[in-house]
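User: I've been trying to design a sequence by hand for this structure and keep getting stuck. Would you show me what you'd pick, starting by listing the structure so we're on the same page?

Assistant: Good idea, let's start from the same input. This is the structure you sent:
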C-alpha cells in the first residue's frame, strides 16, 4: 500500500514490533506507527479503514470488540485473515447493527504477494466497497491491465471463495507431491532431474506458481550437497482451510473427493511413528520400480497431473455454485477465475480457460462439460489411467490422482450402483426408494415378507 502512494498506520499489540518495523523494513517510507488501538484509530482519516491480519477465530472477535468503542458510524473493519466464512457472516451482521461496515477479504500470495501484489477476494457489506476499491485494485496483482481483485459478494462470500481457493491449493500440492513420489520411488530419478522435469512442465499447460516453486525446491541443496527436501520431516501441517472446505462440501452434498483426499493425506502423513513401524511389518509388492520407458512414463505423469488438476478446480467451482444457491449469493465465477490468475498461490495458466468457460456460459453446470476442458480430458485419459494403474501395481500411494479419476468416471456415468444402496436401505430400514418408472414417487417393498407396509418418511440429511 505504501509503495502505491497510500498512507498507512501500522499497529501491533506488541508495540516493540512496531518500533522495529519502522526502524527497518518501513524506514524511509510514509508508514506511520501507532502505540495503541486508540492511537491508531485517531491517526486515521474518516471513514476509517482498519485491516486486521490476525489468527482466525477468537482473536478477530477480540480485536473487533476492542476497536468498537473508538469507532464512529460508517467506519470500516476489514478482516484479511483466513476466517471461517460463517464467522464473517455473523460479524458482518453484528457490525451492521452497530452502524459499522465489515469486509471479509481473502488474501493470497504469501510474502511475495504481500510486497508485490496479492490476489484479493473481498466480500461483506457492499456499502464499504467504494471506500476501499481503489486501494485494493491498485495494490492487487495484475494480469495485463486486469486487477486480480473484485467484489465477490455479501457477508462471508469473500472468505468462502478464499477457503475454496485454499482447498484447491491443498489438492494441487498433493497432486504435485504424488507426481514427485512416482518419479522418485518408481522411476528413481535424481532431484536435479526432477527439478528439470518440473521446470519443463512449467512451460506448458501446467504453468503455475506451485510447479515453478517445486522446481526450485527440488534443486535446493543442504550444506553437504544433499537435496534439502530429503532433510525435511515428511509430516505435513495444516491450518484448517482445507478441512473447512471438505466439511462444507459434506454439508452441501458436493463430492469434493480430491480435496478431501488431500486433507486426509496430510492427516496420514502426520502418523509418522506409526508409519515407520508399519513399514517394517507390512509387506507391499516385491518391487516398486517401473521397468518401462522412463521418458514415456514421465509424460504420462504430466498428463495425469493436468487432468487431475482440472478435476480439482471443477470440484471447487461445483462447491461455490452449490453454496451460492443455498445462501442466495450471486457469485461471478469468471471474475473469481480472474482473481486467481495472478498473485495467489494457485495461479496457473489454465485459469484463463476457466474464465473463458464461464464467460461463455455463466450457468455452466461443471467445467468438465465445457468444450475446451472436455477435449483436454479426452487427450489425457489414457495416460491418466496408466499412471493410476501402475501406481497401484507398484504400491505407490496416489490418493489424489486416484480419487480424481474415480470422480471423473463417476461423473461421466449415466448409471451408478446407487440403486442397490437404495434397495439395501429400504430392506433394513424401510427408508423407501424412487422407481424409474414413477419419478418423484417413493415406495417401500416388504422384502422379507415379515416387514409389513410401514415405512420411514423420505428425506435427505
Amino acid at each position: 500500500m505504501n509503495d502505491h502512494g497510500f498512507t498507512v498506520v501500522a499497529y501491533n499489540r506488541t508495540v516493540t514490533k512496531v518500533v522495529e518495523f519502522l526502524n527497518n523494513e518501513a524506514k524511509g517510507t510514509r508508514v506511520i506507527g501507532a502505540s495503541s488501538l486508540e492511537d491508531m484509530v485517531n491517526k486515521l482519516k474518516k471513514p476509517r479503514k482498519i485491516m486486521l491480519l490476525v489468527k482466525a477465530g477468537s482473536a478477530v472477535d477480540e480485536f473487533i470488540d476492542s476497536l468498537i468503542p473508538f469507532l464512529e458510524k460508517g467506519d470500516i473493519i476489514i478482516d484479511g485473515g483466513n476466517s471461517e466464512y460463517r464467522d464473517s457472516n455473523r460479524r458482518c451482521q453484528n457490525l451492521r447493527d452497530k452502524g459499522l461496515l465489515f469486509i471479509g477479504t481473502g488474501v493470497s500470495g504469501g510474502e511475495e504477494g504481500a510486497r508485490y501484489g496479492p490476489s484479493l477476494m473481498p466480500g461483506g457489506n457492499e456499502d464499504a466497497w467504494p471506500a476501499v476499491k481503489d486501494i485494493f485494485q491498485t495494490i492487487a496483482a495484475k494480469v495485463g491491465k486486469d486487477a486480480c481483485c473484485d467484489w465477490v459478494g455479501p457477508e462471508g462470500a469473500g472468505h468462502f471463495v478464499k477457503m475454496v481457493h485454499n482447498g484447491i491449493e491443498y489438492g494441487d500440492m498433493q497432486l504435485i507431491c504424488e507426481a514427485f513420489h512416482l518419479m522418485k520411488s518408481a522411476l528413481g530419478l535424481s532431484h536435479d532431474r526432477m527439478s528439470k522435469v518440473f521446470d519443463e512442465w512449467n512451460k506448458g499447460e501446467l504453468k503455475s506458481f506451485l510447479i515453478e516453486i517445486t522446481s526450485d525446491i527440488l534443486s535446493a541443496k543442504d550444506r553437504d550437497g544433499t537435496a534439502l527436501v530429503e532433510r525435511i520431516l515428511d509430516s505435513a501441517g495444516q491450518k484448517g482451510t482445507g478441512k473447512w472446505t471438505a466439511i462444507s462440501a459434506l454439508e452441501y452434498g458436493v463430492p469434493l473427493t480430491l480435496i478431501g483426499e488431500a486433507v486426509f493425506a496430510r492427516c496420514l502423513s502426520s502418523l509418522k511413528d506409526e508409519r515407520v513401524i508399519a513399514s517394517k511389518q507390512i509387506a507391499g509388492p516385491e518391487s516398486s520400480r517401473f521397468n518401462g520407458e522412463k521418458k514415456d512414463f514421465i509424460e504420462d505423469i504430466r498428463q495425469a497431473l493436468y487432468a487431475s488438476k482440472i478435476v480439482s478446480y471443477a470440484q471447487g467451482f461445483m462447491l461455490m455454485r452449490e453454496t451460492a444457491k443455498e445462501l442466495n449469493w450471486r457469485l461471478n465465477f469468471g471474475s473469481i477465475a480472474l482473481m486467481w490468475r495472478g498473485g495467489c498461490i494457485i495461479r496457473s495458466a489454465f485459469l484463463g480457460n476457466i474464465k473463458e468457460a464461464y464467460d461463455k456460459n455463466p450457468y455452466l453446470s461443471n467445467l468438465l462439460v465445457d468444450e475446451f476442458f472436455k477435449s483436454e480430458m479426452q487427450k489425457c485419459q489414457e495416460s491418466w489411467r496408466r499412471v493410476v494403474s501402475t501406481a497401484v501395481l507398484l504400491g505407490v500411494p496416489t490418493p489424489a490422482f486416484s480419487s480424481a479419476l474415480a470422480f471423473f468416471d463417476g461423473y461421466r456415468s449415466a448409471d451408478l450402483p446407487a440403486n442397490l444402496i437404495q434397495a439395501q436401505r429400504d430392506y433394513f430400514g424401510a427408508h423407501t426408494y424412487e422407481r424409474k418408472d414413477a419419478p418423484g414417487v417413493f415406495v417401500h417393498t416388504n422384502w422379507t415378507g415379515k416387514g409389513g407396509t410401514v415405512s420411514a418418511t423420505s428425506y435427505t440429511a
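That's my pick for every position. To get oriented when you compare it with your attempt: Residues 184 and 324 are 41 Å apart (CA to CA). The chain has 18 helices and eleven strands.
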